[in-house]
Amino acid sequence: MAQDENSKNMTQNVVSDPISQATVVVEASALTSNEHSLVPQGSQEENRSWINRIWRGLYWGFSGLFGLVSLVIVLAILAAIPIVNLLALGYLLQAEGEVARSGKITRGFPMLHQARFIGGCIMGIFLCLMPLRYLGDFTSDAMLVDPNSGLTRFLRILTSLAAIAIFLHLLGALAAGGRLVRFFRPVKNARTLLSELRSRTFFSDRSVAVSDFFQSLQLRKTFFLGFWGAVGILMWTLIPTGLYAVADAPQGPQILITLAGGILLTLVCSWVPVLQAGYACEERFSLYTQLQRGRQLFRRTPLLWTLAFLLGYALTIVLYLFKIVAPPQDALWLLTTVFIAIIYPARIYIGWVYSRSCRKMDEPWRVWRWFWSLVSFAICGFYVFMLFFTRNIGANGKLVLFEQPLLLIPSPF
Questions:
Q1: Rounded to an integer, what distance in angstroms lies between the CA atom of residue 185 and that of residue 173?
Q2: Per-residue pLDDT reduced to its tens digit, 265-285
Q3: How far is CA 382 from CA 133, 173, 321, in A?
Q4: For the segment 7-17, what is each residue's pLDDT rounded down to a tens digit?
Q5: pTM of the predicted model as reported, rounded to 2 decimal places
Q6: Pairwise CA distance, residues 237 & 136, whole Å
Q7: Do 305 and 374 touch, CB atoms closer than 8 A?
Q8: Coil, strand or helix: which one is 79?
Q9: I need a surface site. Which of 167, 207, 241, 243 has the fewest CB within 10 A?
Q10: Residue 313, class by beta-carbon neighbours within 10 Å (0-12 exposed, 13-18 middle, 19+ buried)?
């Protein structure tokens, strides 16, 4: 009885005390709010992480696509310029060699970062000059209508001031790093340049950055890689192609010389891609003369090499259709872009097949090798047969036979 009375007194004291009652209510509500607030915070963090992943994926995909497009355009511009086009050939051989050495297709874009930077600069300059171009068109139209009006004078002054401002903005964007985003942040560029000028490290830092960029391009190495690569191909194809171009029609005694040249050219086309892949891999000109090694590599993976011949020569026949009419000189690089975009994957695949052949030591069944050797010879023979008719539709006549877009410079003319 005494214990029941004590418990009743304690409960009455708690109920009767309003302060303790409020404290209990506040603590309970605080605990409840904390428990409920933990769930949204966790979900918000998960949502933010997913949003960041999606954003990074989109940025990576767009950046990679922009780099590939810039790379193709830069190579097309180089391939459209005489002598300089050896740089384009050298880069394709360098990409093929990187894949041949590593066995990874992702290594087939060694100058992707540099091309992305150059493409960003070109796009930034183009976008910044567009308003000035339209303003100049308005000014020229106003001068034709009324050259002495007040509006014409105002447009002339405005165009001059806009040209000066855009020129200074482009200089600031290039000096601040030249990235594409820099062309849309003039205020931030000005702050960056002012801070670097105050620290007196601007000119030294920029000279080092420009020097490092040009060294990363490896222009001298790439040029001679393309030069000796072209010499090696011409060493094998010049005489057979010359014999193949003798006859003007499929009749008469000259057709025998053309037939012999066609057979020789078919044989050459069946092993020259293997030899060129070896040259691109090891960068030694002597590999163009190691025919026995090239045949050994073919015997290890005959199916893959046959597919490489089919892909490369089929795409080459398609490219010959673009040689029917010579384009204007200022539009030559646009057509060359198609050639680069088509030949580049074939180069990458040939480098990958060469890597597989080097890593595989055993040879398949002899009948299997003979079968795919005959198939590859038939593919090369069909390519040479179609090549005979290209001089009749090409703008350069018989010179079309010597171009070989798959093995030499992928340019329409």
A1: 8
A2: 999 999 999 999 999 999 999
A3: 51, 53, 16
A4: 444 444 444 44
A5: 0.79
A6: 53
A7: no
A8: helix
A9: 207
A10: buried
